[in-house]
Amino acid sequence: MNARRAERVSRYLSRHLRHAPDAIGVVLDAAGWTPVTDLLDACARSGFPISRAELDQVVATSDKQRFAFDDTGQRIRANQGHSVRVDLGLETTPPPEVLYHGTIESFLPAIRREGLRPMGRHDVHLSTDSATARRVGARRGQPVILTVDSGAMHHAGHRFRRSANGVWLASHVPPGFLSHPQFGHS
Ligand code: HQG
């Protein structure tokens, strides 16, 4: 499988394991899992056949480890990024002192007012390094990086979880824990 095909397969799986299982008749359980055979049947029925070997390769090599098999190898789910309601069962974990979020300038006024909100997803996604945050922001335009005082948030009782692929998740980041030169506090 070449890189282009792998990316198409990954995008197709992301769409249906995170956002639109119904569109191809896949049923996710409460934790987001679905049987691999059901998924592959549904993909084939929907005109996007994926072989088991291709699936294994995409799960193993996805640059961001977007998907995981369960311990038996019989079920698959997306590691994070859902808009459909699932409970990934991630434990609350103390975060590092600082995390980063990449966005674009036009969102800053709203973010300064409301803080970071999950928008279309379950959670706000935060990175441990600013380079990753920069790449996330760059999906939308010229990236700007916000620094999150996750240590102070933790002390104030906010809960953090870490997805299987190393993304830090929070349900909201209030503006007082965000710094950016335009926000006037650092
Ligand atoms: C912004 C990709 C206005 C937020 C990436 C972001 C990541 C606000 C956008 C993962 C706001 C939401 C997640 C507020 C936040 N007012 N805008 N109050 N609060 N925003 O895509 O973090 O390829 O849902 O800054 O690499 O960009 O899918 O979140 O710009 O890891 O695996 O609203 O998605 O990974 O956008 O990206 P998203 P995100 P995958």
Task: Provide an overview of this structure.
The structure is a single chain. The protein is α+β, with helices and mostly antiparallel strands. It folds into 2 domains: 76 residues, Orthogonal Bundle (Arc Repressor Mutant, subunit A); 85 residues, ADP-ribosylation fold. The protein contains 6 helices and 9 strands; from the N terminus they run H-E-H-H-E-E-E-H-E-H-E-H-E-E-E. The strands form 3 sheets. A 3-stranded antiparallel β-sheet has the order 1-3-2. Strand 7 and strand 8 form a beta hairpin. Helix 1 crosses helix 3. It is elongated. The site of ligand HQG has 17 residues, from helix 4.
Number of helices: 6
Principal-axes geometry comes out as: elongated
- Topology as a string of helices (H) and strands (E): HEHHEEEHEHEHEEE
Number of domains: 2
Decide which structural class fits the backbone. alpha+beta
Mean pLDDT: 95
CATH class of the largest domain: Alpha Beta
Distance between the ends:
47 Å
CATH architecture of the largest domain: Alpha-Beta Barrel
